[in-house]
């Protein structure tokens, strides 16, 4: 904004501005007319330091900004009352210590949040696995229930078919080969037993 204002002043052949947007700051408004230039330069310096700290810090904190603001307040008081402000080195050392404490607390909170997230994810996965196992068990039980029902139906159908064949007199034709052999053998054995009984009776009668 200052270069724009300067180019505008050159075009209109007016006085070039001494300040830019920073002139609207409350710190400069509170300063006396003779100290406005000095406080504006001091404020610009502190703003550049704060921007660099925000750019290169891994965890952003408001500690350095608060300390730099305190320095500006102390400089204003120095211009008005003559009280000497603290040195920049002392203030920055305090700021570093406080910032490290704040960063440690922030990291602890982040670690706690991450642990909670991992626990939630594990619980969700466990719940999903349990639900899948329940579904699989239900499906297996349903399949096991369906198979014996099918077998029972087949047996009932076979019995019904045999009954129908017996009624129609077609049992021998419809029976399979193995069953036919078994029935023929059973009939032969019965006939042989009857013949043996008859022979025994005849022998007894002769005696």
From TrEMBL:
Pfam families: Nop. It comes from Aptenodytes patagonicus. Residues 159-173 have a biased composition (Acidic residues). PANTHER family: NUCLEOLAR PROTEIN 5 NUCLEOLAR PROTEIN NOP5 NOP58 (PTHR10894), NUCLEOLAR PROTEIN 56 (PTHR10894:SF0). Involved in the early to middle stages of 60S ribosomal subunit biogenesis. Required for the biogenesis of box C/D snoRNAs such U3, U8 and U14 snoRNAs. Part of the small subunit (SSU) processome, first precursor of the small eukaryotic ribosomal subunit. During the assembly of the SSU processome in the nucleolus, many ribosome biogenesis factors, an RNA chaperone and ribosomal proteins associate with the nascent pre-rRNA and work in concert to generate RNA folding, modifications, rearrangements and cleavage as well as targeted degradation of pre-ribosomal RNA by the RNA exosome. Residues 1-81 form the Nop domain. This is Nucleolar protein 5A. GO terms for molecular function: snoRNA binding. One of its GO terms (cellular component) is small-subunit processome. Residues 197-207 have a biased composition (Basic residues). Part of a large pre-ribosomal ribonucleoprotein (RNP) complex, that consists of at least 62 ribosomal proteins, 45 nonribosomal proteins and both pre-rRNA and mature rRNA species. Within this complex directly interacts with TCOF1 in an RNA-independent manner. Core component of box C/D small nucleolar ribonucleoprotein (snoRNP) particles; the core proteins SNU13, NOP56, NOP58 and FBL or FBLL1 assemble stepwise onto the snoRNA. Interacts with NOP1 and NOP58. Interacts with NUFIP1, RUVBL1 and RUVBL2; RUVBL1:RUVBL2 seem to bridge the association of NOP56 with NUFIP1. InterPro entries: Nop56/Nop58, Nop_C, Nop_dom, Nop_dom_sf. Residues 108-207 are annotated as: Disordered.
């Amino acid at each position: 904004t200052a270069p724009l204002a300067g180019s505008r002043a050159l075009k209109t052949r007016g006085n070039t501005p001494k300040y830019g947007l920073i002139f609207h700051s409350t710190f400069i408004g509170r300063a006396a007319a003779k100290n406005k230039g000095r406080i504006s330069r001091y404020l610009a310096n502190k703003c550049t330091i704060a921007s660099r700290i925000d750019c290169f810090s891994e965890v952003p904190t408001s500690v350095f900004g608060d300390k730099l603001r305190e320095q500006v307040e102390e400089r204003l008081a120095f211009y008005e009352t003559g009280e000497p402000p603290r040195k920049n080195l002392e203030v920055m050392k305090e700021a570093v210590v406080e910032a490290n404490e704040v960063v440690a607390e922030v990291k602890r909170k982040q670690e706690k949040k991450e642990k909670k997230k991992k626990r939630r994810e594990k619980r969700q996965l466990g719940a999903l696995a349990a639900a899948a196992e329940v579904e699989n068990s239900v499906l297996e039980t349903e399949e096991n229930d369906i198979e014996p029902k099918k077998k029972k139906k087949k047996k009932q159908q076979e019995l019904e078919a045999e009954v129908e064949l017996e009624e129609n007199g077609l049992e021998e034709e419809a029976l399979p080969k193995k069953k036919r052999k078994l029935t023929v053998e059973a009939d032969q054995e019965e006939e042989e037993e009857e013949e043996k009984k008859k022979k025994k009776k005849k022998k007894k009668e002769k005696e």
